[in-house]
Amino acid sequence: MLPMTIISSLIFFTAISASALEPRAKVDGPCTGKSGIGGVCISTSSCTKDGGSYISNACPGTPDDIKCCTKPNCQSGSQSGDCRFTDKCTGGKPILSNLCPGPNDFKCCITNSNGQNLGQLILAKAKTAEGTPYHWGGGNCNGPTGGGYDCSGLVSWAICQVTGRNLFSEGLRVTRSMYCASESKLKYKKLNFADRRAGDAVFFGGKCDCANDPEGIHHVGLMMNSGYDMWNALKTGTKVRKDNFQNWSEKPCPKVIRF
Ligand SMILES: *[C@@H]1O[C@H](CO)[C@@H](O)[C@H](O)[C@H]1NC(C)=O
């Protein structure tokens, strides 16, 4: 009996170690897809729904319907790129949401935006609204509402147009919500005002005190340079335009948001 036991355990352990040598994939994890392009292991239905294509046998160890999905072309307006894991989209390239299949960290990495960063693209989009009237509460993802934009409506609209991200539905559209949100909720960095550059969001509101007076934070615009020019929907009676705040009695808040 003893030799038989040894033989069967040998067979058993050989089987285990052979399968352990095969690379294993995870659902929502990376894989190598069609033409050797990096992809994501997801269900075939969610792959095709979002315009991807898949190959079989590239996500070993996952359920039958999970396959390696790739989407080598994604675009929004004049910007285009490919879908990849965001940690592979380096060098400050813009990352656009809602254009790729799969999990939240598999996104459209923009490779042709002429070296412009995301803030510059958002500013450029906001500039196309030049002359639109200010309207309190105005703006959504698609454009002006009630005949115009208010300050945060203009900024949130431009973000939505460029990135596909909807701050209106995320509860971040109101100026104070935007300024006071944590970086993790915002998914954008906050930097010191001194480090501002074109495309950053700049805020106004007294002491800009999120803990004690969030209501006081009342205005947001987009920096046009590292000085004091701001593109914005300022107030009732004005139209979307450039303003210079260098000599305003109200000073900007200590932080800017970088997109
Ligand atoms: C702000 O005031 C300074 C000093 O008086 C002046 O040099 C500058 O041109 C002013 N800026 C604007 C935009 O009016």
Automatic annotation (TrEMBL):
<keyword id="KW-0378">Hydrolase</keyword>
<keyword id="KW-0645">Protease</keyword>
<dbReference type="InterPro" id="IPR038765">
    <property type="entry name" value="Papain-like_cys_pep_sf"/>
</dbReference>
<comment type="similarity">
    <text>Belongs to the peptidase C40 family.</text>
</comment>
<dbReference type="Pfam" id="PF00877">
    <property type="entry name" value="NLPC_P60"/>
</dbReference>
<feature type="domain" description="NlpC/P60">
    <location>
        <begin position="116"/>
        <end position="259"/>
    </location>
</feature>
<protein>
    <recommendedName>
        <fullName>NlpC/P60 domain-containing protein</fullName>
    </recommendedName>
</protein>
<dbReference type="InterPro" id="IPR051794">
    <property type="entry name" value="PG_Endopeptidase_C40"/>
</dbReference>
<keyword id="KW-0732">Signal</keyword>
<dbReference type="InterPro" id="IPR000064">
    <property type="entry name" value="NLP_P60_dom"/>
</dbReference>
<feature type="signal peptide">
    <location>
        <begin position="1"/>
        <end position="20"/>
    </location>
</feature>
<keyword id="KW-0788">Thiol protease</keyword>
<dbReference type="GO" id="GO:0006508">
    <property type="term" value="P:proteolysis"/>
</dbReference>
<dbReference type="GO" id="GO:0008234">
    <property type="term" value="F:cysteine-type peptidase activity"/>
</dbReference>
